[in-house]
Write a structure and sequence with these properties.
Layout (H helix, E strand, L loop, with lengths): L5 E5 L3 H12 L6 E5 L2 H8 L13 E4 L8 H10 L8 E5 L4 H9 L4 E4 L4 H17 L5
Parallel strand pairs: 1-2, 1-3, 3-4, 4-5
Helix pairs in contact: 1-5, 2-3
């Protein structure tokens, strides 16, 4: 049996947000999904500020790199430097195949780097595989 997770999706593309939601809804477990449209909103969610005042602390972060206001790399750096959040796994979920982005993400302590497939069904399958790994194979705090 798969255990549900508290997931924070940090993504500015509404189409990608909808596909993540659909992928999670197709699973039998009832994951809780909070959505932040940029790094600043993600920080509000983590610190329970503003519209995120009652948000659950995430057990997993799915993070896009290219976003307005505060990009994914800056947010990743902030998460991994904060003792409150450094233990939360962060999955970089991006369309970037750039070797520099991949190296920088891992240097900033991303837990894994996943390139978004362009085809809808493959995108959803990638989400399910990543989330199922973190909720069924890994022991989280």
């Amino acid at each position: 049996m798969l255990k549900p997770l508290e997931i924070l999706l940090v993504e500015d593309n509404e189409g990608d947000v909808e596909m993540v939601k659909e992928a999670l809804e197709e699973e039998t477990s009832l994951d809780s999904l909070s959505v932040a449209n940029n790094g600043k909103e993600a920080l509000d969610c983590l610190y329970k500020q503003g519209k995120f005042h009652d948000a659950a602390t995430p057990q997993l972060v799915l993070l896009d790199l290219n976003m307005p206001q505060m990009d994914g790399k800056m947010l990743l750096r902030m998460i991994k430097q904060d003792e409150l959040f450094m233990g939360i796994p962060v999955v970089v979920l991006t369309s970037s195949r750039a070797p520099l982005d991949i190296r920088e993400a891992y240097a900033l302590h991303a837990n894994c780097y996943v390139i978004k497939p362009f085809e809808c069904m493959k995108f959803k399958e990638a989400i399910r595989l990543v989330v199922n790994f973190w909720r069924s194979v890994v022991v989280l705090p």
